[in-house]
Design brief:
This protein is an alpha+beta fold. Strands 1-3-4-5-2 form a five-stranded antiparallel sheet. A hairpin with a 3-residue loop joins strand 3 and strand 4. About 30% of the residues are buried.
Length: about 170
Amino acid sequence: MKARTPKESKAITTDLVLPGETNPINNLFGGDLLARMDRIASIAARRHSRSHVVTASVNHVAFQKPIPLGSVMTLEASVSRAFRSSMEIIIDVYIEDKHSGTRVLANDAIYTFVAVNDEGTPVKAPPIQPETDKEKERYEAALRRRQLSLVLAGKLDPKEATELKALFYGKEE
């Protein structure tokens, strides 16, 4: 199976925050943002795998800045690494300054999706070939994040989490 680049899976959407999507202090509801991130991540996963995809987990969400009513926000998602059937997708959420047009990172998230066939059975996902320094950094970190998730879920013995151990003790000879 031919490797694909994160750029090939990239999905971008830009939208306006409307009154019905905000909480009492006029910021975008967190749940609304989560739903938007789930949709954009599913598009990136589908582009990468060229199959149906399902959300396996929301691994990380950071609500760093509120997204006020009337904001123009852009969500960007791409696959950072693929394993057997699962794919890690990183989503960055930017808000645009209405006067200067500059974009500021407001939130980010990491989701895991699984490629499936028409019956919902997992299928193999193509590997990722990172190109840029940022893509390479995200690719390497994805294995550590995956090992941590597996250890916390009781699916991997901590002694076998080689990438996590390397963070604390260095690479084994």
